[in-house]
Amino acid sequence: MNCTKVIDQRKIYFLLFSLLAFSCNDKEDVAQFEEYTGPMRILSNAVIMHSDSAKIQGKLITPLLYEFINSDKELPKGGFIEFYDKLGLISATLRADYGYFTDEEQVWKIEGNVVLINLENNESLNTEQLFWNPVAGNVYTDMFVRIEREDEILTGTGLTAKQDFSSYVIKKPEGVFNLGE
To answer: What is the pLDDT of residues 5-25, one digit of tens each?
Structure first.
């Protein structure tokens, strides 16, 4: 009977040792996994309202929105933004193929077929990249811009403007300009 107890104890020690060895290997395997950096939340057909003092300032409409753990946001399929005036009427619209919001800087980087239209002045801005700061209420770019008015087309490189495109400055204007009489 003593022999059986010795064999049983050896089996128990062997099993404990084996479990310990496997648990160590599992920890090494876990350490090899990379940290997830993808979106924490994915929204389809999203509509996001931006307001200040209970007044709507803008509305973002996008087919796909990614939100990350650091509060950054990405619009991989682009989006459409409506800007509202003090009376709550749409004053301007912005459309683009792609967008990325950096929470740390509070700025949107908008790219690809960017079109900003001021509905009151019937003016449109076309560029390939635009930065929008919703806190400051402005947009800017260092890229080529094309502005279409009813009676002329302005082109240049670089621009700063109000987000509703009610006023703007082209940094390096180019082309022919109508100075009037």
So the answer is: 555 666 666 666 666 665 555
Claim: this prediction has a pTM higher than 0.85: no
Q: Give the CA radius of gyration of the chain.
A: 29
| Structure confidence by residue, pLDDT tens digits, 22-42 | 555 545 555 678 888 889 999
For residue 155, give the nearest of 132, 127, 174, 133 by alpha carbon: 174
**Tens-place pLDDT, residues 75-107:** 999 999 999 988 889 999 999 999 999 999 999
Distances (CA, A) of 177 to 9, 65, 81, 124: 97, 41, 30, 17
Report the C-alpha gap between 164 and 122 in whole angstroms. Answer: 12
Chain centre distance of CA 30: 32
- Which residues of the chain form beta strands (DSSP E)? 41-52, 55-67, 73-75, 79-84, 90-96, 98-102, 107-118, 123-133, 138-148, 153-162, 168-174
Q: Are 63 and 40 in contact (CB under 8 A)?
A: no
Distance CA 134, CA 32 (A): 41
140 and 116 Cβ atoms separated by less than 8 Å = no
